Amino acid sequence: MRPLLSLIKREFTAYFLSPVGYVTLFFFLVVTGVLFAGVVADLTRTGAQGVEDPFAALLGQTVFWYVFAFIPPLLTMRLLAEERGSGTLETLLTAPIRDWQVVAGKFVGAVLFFLVLLLPTLAYLPVLLNLDRSNFTFGIDPASAACSYLGLVLAGMMFLAIGLFVSSLVKNQLVAAMIALAVCLVFVAVGEGLKYLDANSLAAKVVRFLSVPDHFRSDFTRGVIDTRPVVLYLSVTACCLYLTVRSLEARRLRA
User: pTM here?
Assistant: First the structure.
């Protein structure tokens, strides 16, 4: 267990020792800040231009998820691709640590930094929940915030696992980021096909099952936890982590 904890600490600390972590943090906060300002402006409008559900307005819009899809590939592109390219992966694999511990350590380190990215956005909650400071009551059900953040963490874990698996297959960090981004965008852009499908068709049901923005528009931002997207996120995460372990095992056998 000690090697695993050491690896987690190493990977988590590495984000604060390289510009990638700070650039990703700055990019994410700037974009979310702009989107938050837009939602606040819409909350103060009346009529058809106004919005009543701030979380659906923020997390239900596809543009947020197109931006969000860039974050995990940036965080995972260096995890294994950099070590493969520099030749340090072989040294790591010969250390007294198992392959699953290597994968778990890098994945947990990335997840922890991803949670750091989300922490500053908690400052938006008093406005989004319409907090009444006089008696500390909320005008909007806090369950919508709790479910939204739960969904963000689960979706982030899925995208991070995809990025980690891709990083284990290539040596170039930029290539790893581009491939991972392409895969992540599938879960974002697939919902665009709903407008061309019969709402009751099997194809539409599959698209809704895979579309992350649709999960937030219909469930998470409304304070509802549907087991179907949760199963999707966890199963894809587990599958990608398993494939990453197998990828390292195959590399160890070839060495």
Answer: 0.89
